[in-house]
């Protein structure tokens, strides 16, 4: 059984209208990363951080998966092997498209996390400081998002998957954020065929055996079709 491991980043969600901190305009442009995406920023001004993620959650719920998300869901459905998506994105567009085997290494907007007892539950549309943890009843709720300076989720599991991958693809990732930027090297060492699908070459493009340039909504469906035809 062949195994395909796919890393997805902001580039795939951008085509569904969800911007990142690198984009001009949009939600991020009104804030500094240090204020809304670090534990220190949250400690300084929790209300600002709740509002920021409440706005992003509302925006993400309005977003619609694009052809790239759809193609990856089809790959998981139809491929005679294992398909795993590791995503850096905090939206749920892969799931909305029908993908089931998805690891959110940076957490997700639909999650709430108790900083006191680590309990996780489904975030309400509007999170606020007075929210109580349903398990320990403390008011230590925070978005279930991995902020800068925090350890991404599922790392041991992810390294295991990379070591057993036959194909590793990175789609719409900048290659600037570690540890994800080093996944290609882990997969390559394990003997996987590596392919980058990106609008612009990533910072680690030279680590890939194959590069496909273009919009994810155009390159991913073509790539998936080739995989399903066994080419
Ligand atoms: Zn708790």
UniProtKB/TrEMBL annotation:
Q: Specify which residues bind substrate according to the UniProt entry for this protein.
A: 53, 56
What does the protein in this record do?
NAD-dependent lysine deacetylase and desuccinylase that specifically removes acetyl and succinyl groups on target proteins. Modulates the activities of several proteins which are inactive in their acylated form.
Primary location recorded for the protein, binned into one broad class: cytoplasm
* Cofactor binding, note field: Binds 1 zinc ion per subunit.
Q: What is its EC number?
A: 2.3.1.286
Q: Which residues bind NAD(+)?
A: 9-28, 88-91, 172-174, 198-200, 216
- Record's GO cellular component terms: cytoplasm
Where in the numbering of this chain does the Deacetylase sirtuin-type domain appear? 1-230
PROSITE patterns per the record? Answer: SIRTUIN
Keywords attached to this Swiss-Prot or TrEMBL record, sorted alphabetically, are:
Cytoplasm, Metal-binding, NAD, Transferase, Zinc
Q: Where in the cell is it found?
A: Cytoplasm
Q: Which reaction does it catalyse?
A: N(6)-acetyl-L-lysyl-[protein] + NAD(+) + H2O = 2''-O-acetyl-ADP-D-ribose + nicotinamide + L-lysyl-[protein]; N(6)-succinyl-L-lysyl-[protein] + NAD(+) + H2O = 2''-O-succinyl-ADP-D-ribose + nicotinamide + L-lysyl-[protein]
* Family according to the record: Belongs to the sirtuin family. Class III subfamily.
Its needed co-factors are: Zn(2+)
Active site positions, chain numbering: 106 (proton acceptor)
This protein is called: NAD-dependent protein deacylase
The residues that the entry says bind Zn(2+) are 114, 117, 133, 136
Instruction: Fetch the InterPro entries from UniProt.
Output: DHS-like_NAD/FAD-binding_dom, NAD-dep_sirtuin_deacylases, Sirtuin, Sirtuin_cat_small_dom_sf, Sirtuin_class_III, Ssirtuin_cat_dom
Return the domain comment text from this UniProt entry: 2 residues (Tyr-53 and Arg-56) present in a large hydrophobic pocket are probably involved in substrate specificity. They are important for desuccinylation activity, but dispensable for deacetylation activity.
Q: Which GO terms describe its molecular function?
A: histone deacetylase activity, NAD-dependent; NAD+ binding; protein-malonyllysine demalonylase activity; protein-succinyllysine desuccinylase activity; zinc ion binding
Say which domain of life the source belongs to. Bacteria
Instruction: Give the matching Pfam families.
Output: SIR2
